[in-house]
Amino acid sequence: MSLLQTQNLSLKQGERILIAGLNLTIGTGEAWIVLGENGCGKSTLLSALAGWFKPYGGAVMLGGQAITQVVPAQRALAMAWQTQQDECPFPLTTLEKTLTGRHPHLSRWEWESDADLVLAQQQLARLDLADFGARDLASLSGGERRRVSLATVLTQQAPLLLLDEPLSQLDLRHQQQALGVLREEVQEGRSIVMVSHDPNHAAQFATHALLLFGNGEWQAGVLADVLNAEMLSKLYHHPVFEMQQDGKSWFVPIA
Ligand SMILES: Nc1ncnc2c1ncn2[C@@H]1O[C@H](COP(=O)(O)OP(=O)(O)OP(=O)(O)O)[C@@H](O)[C@H]1O
Fold this sequence. Notes:
The protein is of the alpha/beta class. It has a single domain, classed as P-loop containing nucleotide triphosphate hydrolases (Rossmann fold), CATH 3.40.50.300. 32% of the residues lie in helices and 29% in strands. The chain contains nine helices and twelve strands. The protein has helices spanning 42-49, 72-78, 94-99, 114-126, 142-155, 172-187, 200-205, 223-226, 229-236; strands spanning 2-13, 16-27, 31-35, 57-62, 65-66, 79-82, 160-164, 191-195, 208-212, 218-222, 240-245, 248-253. The strands form three sheets. It has a six-stranded mixed sheet with strand order 6-7-8-3-9-10, sandwiched between helices. It has a four-stranded antiparallel sheet with strand order 2-1-4-5, with helices on one face. β7 (160-164), α6 and β8 (191-195) form a beta-alpha-beta unit. α4 crosses α5 (142-155). The longest helix is centred in the C-terminal third of the chain and has 16 residues, at 172-187. The termini are far apart. The site of adenosine-5'-triphosphate has 11 residues, from α1. It comes from Deefgea tanakiae. Part of the ABC transporter complex HmuTUV involved in hemin import. Responsible for energy coupling to the transport system. Keywords: ATP-binding, Cell membrane, Membrane, Nucleotide-binding, Translocase, Transport. This is ABC transporter ATP-binding protein. One of its GO terms (molecular function) is ATP binding.
């Protein structure tokens, strides 16, 4: 089933066309990795998919309805969006921040339930943050705060996750742990669109890839059809070498 679709979507920042005529269908249980150079339009695309950034042309469809017609409260039940910004202007504990993921599920004056509390604590524990609940968010390291932001998105329990570099600032072990969590989410039937700067995250979690070339051009499809050394070398303007291990492709930049 298609959760989210783009129809002939074009995105422009200033005078620059970033993405032209993008046709994408994100189905249930699909994991998309979005790759491309700095400034090619990855975050702009996620913002458009979330219904915030106004397209230059075309449309984003959520469950068959133009996203502009879907009220924000309904959007928040359908998708969770992790941006690159982890700063919080208010003093909050880690648990309070994580519980904000439940807001779309609560009515105006309703407090979070015990079940919400347990759910938030479970998501923190999945990302090695079980003992961080009472900590002031501002006292956390960059990587810890990034994991709290991912735990918050998971607490929202939306069928579609839009993740903007969720693994940036994470060390090797915590990257692997987070990738394992994302695989579990996909196995449970969620769909993910994840921006990354590491094409090797693809082999570890993705079913599909979207490559953005920053000049309007794009390539999208099943991982094996899109991701190869030639395409990545073109994408990054740098030669990339492909290695096969256990039936998976791994990519190494040539120094
Ligand atoms: N208001 C604006 N006016 C003009 N250009 C803008 C504006 N906002 C963003 N841009 C430019 O749009 C381009 C796309 O930005 P975006 O944040 O989508 O890139 P990105 O692919 O996510 O980059 P990164 O990998 O660095 O996170 C960038 O070159 C950025 O400088």
